[in-house]
Design goal:
The structure holds two protein chains of two kinds.
Chain A: E1 5-7, E2 10-13, E3 19-24, E4 31-37, E5 44-50, E6 53-56, E7 65-68, E8 75-79, E9 88-98, E10 101-106, E11 110-114
Parallel strand pairs in A: 2-11
Antiparallel strand pairs in A: 1-3, 3-8, 4-5, 4-9, 5-6, 7-8, 9-10, 9-11
Chain B: E1 4-6, E2 9-13, E3 18-24, E4 31-37, E5 43-50, E6 55-58, E7 61-66, E8 71-76, E9 85-91, E10 100-101, E11 105-110
Parallel strand pairs in B: 2-11
Antiparallel strand pairs in B: 1-3, 3-8, 4-5, 4-9, 6-7, 7-8, 9-10, 9-11
Classes of the chains: A mainly beta, B mainly beta.
């Protein structure tokens, strides 16, 4: 079974440019998450989707970040315009409920460097 | 508020046991998790424990939970060089699945 797929794996852009990240979750997982991981830190949630609906976007900086999951499967996270401080790893995860535990499976991440 | 704390580094010799500690603040967390992250990779789920349990064992991994002190630990028996990675504990403070992660403990295993 394929895991969570993310692309690109690496991206280098100049500040003020736009950038987009793509995620395809594990088949059958209806919950999808985008996390931001700064260097030396644990991941922090940006947005959570249940099917097509964004049910928690309280930590998403909406002035420059946007996300969509139009058909309830794959998702795109966009930054426009990018700032130097956006350099980080962007992780996508999808979840499966095992009994009562909601187990999240992570993709390899997209490493963004803003120059 | 929600906060998870871990020590940053741990160094052990191959074959020894490793114990990685974590403290959390939200007593309503239902599940607590341990994830492993190797360089350049995403997070791999190692194990999780339900909050009404004290201990869970899974092969070389033993999780201990002290709910009164809000302290979680992960013990790795017979640590191998392949166990070198960053280990994150995480809590779920609500039923919505949001994970709150610690800053990670870097485990270094010396031959």
């Amino acid at each position: 079974e394929a895991g969570v797929v993310q692309s690109p794996r690496y991206k280098i852009i100049e500040k003020k440019q736009p950038v987009a990240f793509w995620c395809n979750p594990i088949s059958g997982h209806n919950t999808l998450y985008w996390y931001l991981q700064n260097l030396g830190q644990g991941p922090e949630l940006l947005i959570r989707y249940e099917n097509e609906e964004a049910v928690d976007d309280s930590q998403l900086p909406k002035d420059r970040f946007s996300a969509e999951r139009l058909k309830g499967v794959d998702s795109t996270l966009k930054i426009q315009p990018a700032e130097l401080g956006d350099s980080a790893v962007y992780l996508c995860a999808s979840s499966l409920r095992l009994g009562e535990a909601e187990t999240q499976y992570f993709g390899p991440g997209t490493r963004l460097l803003v120059l | 508020g929600e906060d998870v704390e871990q020590s940053l580094f741990l160094s052990v010799r191959e074959g020894d046991s490793s114990v990685i500690n974590c403290t959390y603040t939200d007593s309503s967390s239902t599940y607590l998790y341990w994830y492993k992250q190797e360089p350049g990779a995403g997070l791999q789920l190692l194990t999780y424990i339900f909050s009404n349990m004290d201990m869970k064992q899974d092969q070389r991994l033993t999780v201990l939970l002290n709910k009164k002190d809000k302290h979680l630990s992960l013990r790795i028996a017979d640590t191998q060089t392949g166990d070198s990675a960053i280990y994150f504990c995480a809590e779920t403070p609500d039923q919505g699945g949001k994970l709150i992660f610690g800053q990670g403990t870097e485990l270094s295993v010396k031959p």
